[in-house]
Automatic annotation (TrEMBL):
Keywords from the named record: ATP-binding, Cell membrane, Hydrolase, Membrane, Nucleotide-binding, Translocase, Transport
Natural source organism: Ferruginivarius sediminum
NCBIfam families, alphabetized: ABC_phnC
Region (Disordered) residue spans: 247-266
Gene coding for it: phnC
Any one GO CC term of the record: membrane
Pfam families cross-referenced by the UniProt entry: ABC_tran
Protein name as it appears in the record: Phosphonate ABC transporter ATP-binding protein
TM ranges: none
Entry's Gene Ontology molecular function annotations: ABC-type phosphonate transporter activity; ATP binding; ATP hydrolysis activity
Occurrences of domain ABC transporter (ranges): 2-246
Record PANTHER family: AMINO ACID IMPORT ATP-BINDING PROTEIN, PHOSPHONATES IMPORT ATP-BINDING PROTEIN PHNC
EC numbers for this chain: 3.6.3.28
Basic and acidic residues bias locations: 247-259
Native organism taxonomy: Bacteria, Pseudomonadati, Pseudomonadota, Alphaproteobacteria, Rhodospirillales
InterPro entries on file: AAA+_ATPase, ABC_transporter-like_ATP-bd, ABC_transporter-like_CS, ABC_transpr_PhnC, MetN_ABC_transporter-like, P-loop_NTPase
Length: 266
C-alpha cells in the first residue's frame, strides 16, 4: 500500500509543482496518471523514489515513511521500488541477462556483484521473468541489438528482479510504436495481476490508460482533479484535466479518450 498525504514539491523559490497532494494506491492495482505537460506527473513519481526531494508531506510505503530517509535506509527503501523509464536505461554493451541481473545489485554483496556471481535463485528468477516477458531467448544478446519493445521488456524484468513492493513507470511506452506500446502495457497489466503488484504509470496516451488500467488519476497544476474508473472519464472531466493546456495536446488527449471511454463503459 502506498499512501501519500499533503505532498508538496517546490523547485527553488517558484510556485509549488505539487500542492498538498493526497493519493492512496492499494495492492494489485494498476493506476494511470494523466495530465497536460508540466502538470507534475514525473515530479510525483520522482518524489516517491526520492530522485526528487519532497518539500513537505508524507509518503508511506507499507508502513515505511519514505520522506526523510537518508544513506543506507534510503538505499534499502529504493530497492523496494521498481522503476521503469521511457528511455529504458539499459547498459548497451551488456547482455540481456546481465542487464536483468543488475536489478539484484542492491542485494548481493560487493564481491559477488564484482565477479557477477549471482545466487542460483536470482538466475532462476531471471529466467522465469524473462520467459514471462518473452525475452528468454535473447538472454545472451547484447542490449543494443534489441528493438525498442524488447528493450523495454528488459527494463520491466530488471525492475521486477528487485522483487519490488511497487512499480513506478514514467512514460514507459512513449518511445514505442502503437502496437509495441500496447504489448508492453498488456505485459505490465498481466504482471501486476500475477504478482499482486501495485503499478503507477505516468502516461500521455489516454486511450492506453483507459484500456489497460482500472483507475485514472488526472492531474492539473500539481493537484489531482480526477480520480475514477476509465468509464467515468467524461468530457467534463477531461476538460478539467486539460484546461489551459495547449490546444493540440488537449485535442489529442480528447480524441484518444472518447473511444476509450465508450469502450470502457460497454
Ligand atoms: N529539476 C527541476 N527544476 C526546476 N523545475 C522543474 C524541475 N523538474 C521539473 N520542473 C518543473 O516542474 C513542473 C512539472 O514538471 P513535471 O516534469 O513533473 O511535469 P509532467 O506532468 O511530468 O510533464 P511532462 O508530461 O511534460 O513530462 C514543470 O513546470 C517543470 O518545468
Amino acid at each position: 500500500m502506498l499512501r501519500i498525504s499533503k505532498l508538496t514539491k517546490r523547485y527553488g523559490g517558484d510556485q509549488p509543482v505539487l500542492k498538498e497532494l493526497d493519493l492512496g494506491v492499494s495492492e494489485r492495482s494498476m493506476v494511470a496518471i494523466i495530465g497536460a505537460s508540466g502538470a507534475g506527473k514525473s515530479t510525483l513519481l520522482r518524489c516517491i523514489n526520492r530522485l526528487v526531494e519532497p518539500t513537505s508531506g508524507s509518503i508511506q510505503l507499507n508502513d515505511t515513511e519514505l520522506t526523510g530517509l537518508r544513506g543506507r535506509e534510503l538505499r534499502h527503501a529504493r530497492r523496494r521500488i521498481g522503476m521503469i523509464f521511457q528511455g529504458f536505461n539499459l547498459v548497451d554493451r551488456l547482455t540481456v541477462m546481465e542487464n536483468v541481473l543488475s536489478g539484484r545489485l542492491g542485494y548481493v554483496n560487493f564481491w559477488r556483484a564484482l565477479t557477477r556471481r549471482f545466487p542460483q535463485d536470482d538466475i532462476d528468477h531471471a529466467f522465469y521473468l524473462m520467459e514471462r516477458a518473452g525475452i528468454a531467448h535473447y538472454a545472451n544478446k547484447r542490449a543494443d541489438e534489441l528493438s525498442g519493445g524488447e528493450r523495454q521488456r528488459v527494463g520491466v524484468v530488471r525492475a521486477l528482479m528487485q522483487r519490488p513492493e511497487i512499480l513506478l513507470a514514467d512514460e514507459p511506452t512513449a518511445s514505442l510504436d502503437p502496437k509495441t506500446s500496447e504489448q508492453v502495457m498488456a505485459l505490465l497489466r498481466n504482471l501486476s495481476d500475477e504478482l499482486s503488484l501495485p503499478v503507477l504509470i505516468n502516461i500521455h496516451n489516454v486511450h492506453e490508460a483507459c484500456e489497460f488500467t482500472e483507475r485514472i488519476v488526472g492531474m492539473r497544476h500539481g493537484r489531482i482533479v480526477f480520480d475514477g474508473k476509465p468509464g467515468e472519464l467524461t468530457r467534463a472531466a477531461q476538460d478539467e484535466i486539460y484546461a489551459g493546456a495547449p490546444a493540440d495536446e488537449r485535442e489529442a488527449a480528447k480524441e484518444h479518450a472518447e473511444g476509450a471511454v465508450r469502450a470502457a463503459a460497454q
